[in-house]
Amino acid sequence: MRIKTSGLSLLFLVMPAFAEETAKATTGAPGRAPDTLGTLLSLGVGLVAVIAVIYGCAWIIRRMNGMTGMNNNAIKVVSVMAIGARERIALIEVGGQQILLGITPSAIRTLQVFEEPVVDAGNPNTGDFARRLQSMIGKSWTAPDKE
């Protein structure tokens, strides 16, 4: 029975002996080959740890974006509507007054200050979508009566 060896398996057989000879020549101590695999593994683990820390910090910053420590209940965004690709109008409520704002990438301008509320901020038109959907489908979406 004849066993065939490829060049790659021969390389794996010869490589440890070559590394030991190189170590003897460079360090003078027998059997002290440089630990390249350990060095590569420690570098890889360090790189993964740094990347994990970066992603963790980004996640924490995104989660803490709304936590500024200020009272955010004083200003409420009632409604926002896109007018163009980067232009919007927003209806906000501040101190019982509703203000219509025009928002562009370069400026925010007051368009109108309403003395009395235009839309109830606590309950915006929640049934409007349901009514439109019912009219489009043509079915009544009422709950069945319990007997």
In short:
With 147 residues, the protein is an alpha+beta fold. Helices cover 41% and strands 20% of the residues. Strands 1-2-3-4 form a four-stranded antiparallel beta sheet, with no helix packed on it.
Report what the structure shows.
- With 147 residues, this protein is α+β, with helices and mostly antiparallel strands.
- The chain folds into 2 domains: 7-63, no CATH class; 75-137, no CATH class.
- Helices cover 41% and strands 20% of the residues.
- It contains 3 helices and 4 strands.
- The chain has helices at residues 7-27, 36-63, 127-137, and strands at residues 75-82, 88-94, 97-103, 108-114.
- The chain has a 4-stranded antiparallel beta sheet with strand order 1-2-3-4, with no helix packed on it.
- The longest helix is centred in the middle third of the chain and has 28 residues, at 36-63.
- The chain starts with 6 loop residues before the first helix and ends in a 10-residue tail after the last helix.
- The model has no long low-confidence stretch (mean pLDDT 75).
